[in-house]
Design brief:
The structure is a single chain. It contains two helices and no strands. By secondary structure, it is mainly α. The longest helix has about 35 residues, at about 40-75.
Length: about 80
């Protein structure tokens, strides 16, 4: 059964470019939104706390890695001096 009717097309309305749903939400945008609600002193304090937490995280990762390497060396019978 062949039909000679034209293909039905759907009308798709594009979303306008300036639509609020197309605004990308990046970490920088979120940070600027929250930073604008704080005083510069509060922002500096929060940044300092975040820096020291990150530095502590890195140091703990380094310490765990060194301890694991040393423990593995002892377990394998490798003695380093």
């Amino acid at each position: 059964m062949s039909s000679s009717a034209p293909n039905s097309t759907r009308s798709i309305s594009p979303v306008p470019r300036d639509s609020p749903s197309k605004i990308p939400v990046t970490p920088a945008v979120l940070r600027s939104i929250f930073a604008s609600s704080r005083t510069p002193l509060e922002e500096r304090s929060i940044s300092r706390v975040a820096f020291f937490r990150f530095a502590g995280f890195l140091l703990s990762c380094l310490g765990i890695s060194l301890a694991a390497a040393r423990w593995r060396g002892i377990k394998l019978g490798i003695i380093r001096r």
